[in-house]
Amino acid sequence: MAHLIELTDSNTLEKMLFNLDTVVSIERTSGSNTIITTRWGRTNVKESLDNIKLQAESSTKTEAVVPF
Fold first, then answer.
1. For labelling alongside 34, which of 2, 11, 47, 56 has CA 20 to 30 A away?
2. Is residue 48 part of a domain?
């Protein structure tokens, strides 16, 4: 089961579901943006580190639904 939270890409401003199970590290950048490093790469998001922590602590386990 995945631990999913909703985040906003800082480049495109598009919403995304982010799987916290793939995270290696989360770091603050200048301003309120945050860099999330996963097993496969890096993503810049608009949410602050504190906001991500709050979402992670309040998220419940959600099972991903296969679309077929």
1. 2
2. yes
